[in-house]
UniProtKB/TrEMBL annotation:
InterPro entries: Glyco_trans_2-like, Nucleotide-diphossugar_trans. Residues 5-133 form the Glycosyltransferase 2-like domain. It comes from Cyanobacterium stanieri LEGE 03274. Signal peptide: none annotated. This is Glycosyltransferase family 2 protein.
Amino acid sequence: MPKVSVCIPTYNRSDYLQYSVNSVLSQTYSDFELIICDDGSTDNTAQIVKNFQNNRIKYIRHKNNIGRSKNMRSGFENATGEYFIKFDDDDALTPDFLTKTVAILDKNKDVDFVCTNHWVIDANSNRNEIATKENSDKWGKSKLKEGVIDDLIYQTFVLQSLQVGSTLFRYQALKKVDYMNPLADGCEDFDLLVRMAIAGKNGYFLPEFLMEYRFHGQQNSLKQNLHFLKAKKYCLETYNFAQQNIEQIRHKKLADINLCLGLRMIENNQNKEGRRLIREAEEVLGLSNRSLIGKTLSYLPYQINQFIFQTNKKIKPKDYADQVRSNSSNN
């Protein structure tokens, strides 16, 4: 049996999938299997996988779309390795990822997973050094030192500094927390790391850029945004931290998510539910310009509502992620 199982869940991204698969097959560490779990793709994904003709590849193709988390679980359940990593079909590993992370888990038997830093790449697979630095600073990775992470709950829940796609896990540690939760579909990566921290697992941070995380225009639709926010709301409602200060942060995060979700629902013409969520957020956050504007927009005709939302998106300053996405689409 292979030492490492690498899982790439995919759905209708055959163009990016080739890049992701090649990044695994190009690893300097060779004792691995690659599991591609296909959530009922309707493009030429099956042919792309067949073209690789590599006996280390296992291809699991679901006839129908079963959802992100269930698709990920199918890859996990078919894995045979002692170590396991899952990353998305539009991302990639650098050639030394497995060599360096396997060595840490082999040496540190009490460590359950090792997370690395990562590059930001655009739709054309170009690394963006400025966006990479801003991303590392934003999520606190630039402040993390190499070694075992002492404040794992704070890092995973408060700062959200770790990322599943750049993390190699012990398979049994994932099994003990039941891996991906289908009820958290859309926010399952965040949920997995938080649940591992709550369960008392040990994480190790390696501050080397050993993975590539891609920003592109397909990630930013209203439908995807709603799905993510609903999943994040579910996660925040299920946690119960022993530390009072973390619980207070949880309540604040939940209120922030309710406000964001309420605004997106109003944008999606779900005005009554949107207003309810905004009022719920105001009980914690108080009144704000965003909440007042959101409630006002919910009473306007849909066409005017949409014009204001779209105009705001155009004039809103773009952060590094938006800039990478827009630059990619313009090339």
